[in-house]
Amino acid sequence: MSRQLRRNGGDGSLADMNTDPSCIFCKIVAGEAPAAIVAEDEVTLAFMDINPLTPGHLLVIPREHHESIATIRGSVLSHMVLIGQWLAAALRASPEIRTEGINLYLADGSAAGQEVPHSHLHLVPRWPGDGFRIRAERTWSPGPGDLEEMAAQIRDAATD
Ligand code: 5GP
Ligand code: ZN
After folding, report:
1. For 3-50, what is each residue's pLDDT tens digit?
2. Which ligand is nearest to the CA of 1?
3. Which terminal residue of the chain has fewer beta carbons within 10 Å of its beta carbon, N or C?
4. pLDDT, tens digit, for every residue of 114-134?
5. Does a structural domain hold residue 68?
């Protein structure tokens, strides 16, 4: 369940903002639940993951509640990615947090492993031998022409 809140848009104007009172990330946005905040601005919030995969693991979220990237405005989604890029550079520049590579990860939908239904971009610092594994097994071996056919199916389904 989500509802609309009126908030100050920063420029003095009021803007509609989606929020869900039962969502833990909305509670963090509202200051009603604790989090180690890394950065915040008008549209995004970045904070440390409470259960980090490696030291420095953080999340970038839109302030608005959206379960899926499907409903996030393009300008907000691209801002999330830019904040992710900026914080990736900060992780790499940090002398204390070992970061030789970074996995940027977004699970869209429970079938994709999304557990918190407020869309979020993970930044997971990586280094050789960090012990973190992404176990991916190929589930489909395309036959001749399959990739071209699939490309056409996706192209046909894509909206303007
Ligand atoms: P997902 O599986 O949905 O992509 O990832 C959800 C992430 O949110 C997990 O890595 C989990 O540790 C993190 N998380 C869940 N609840 C909280 C919380 O209350 N505070 C913070 N900081 N992170 C959380
Ligand atoms: Zn939320």
Report:
1. 544 443 444 333 568 999 999 999 999 999 999 999 999 999 999 999
2. 2
3. C
4. 999 999 999 999 999 999 998
5. yes
> What is the CATH number for 20?
3.30.428.10
Range of the domain at 55: 14-157
Residue 115 lies in a domain: yes
Q: HSE-up of 85 (CA within 13 Å, CB side)?
A: 6
Residue nearest atom 19 in ligand 1 by C-alpha distance: 24
Prediction pTM value = 0.91
Closest Cα to atom 4 of ligand 1: 114
Structure tokens belonging to residue 151: 């490309």
Measured from the alpha carbon of residue 2, the closest ligand is: 2
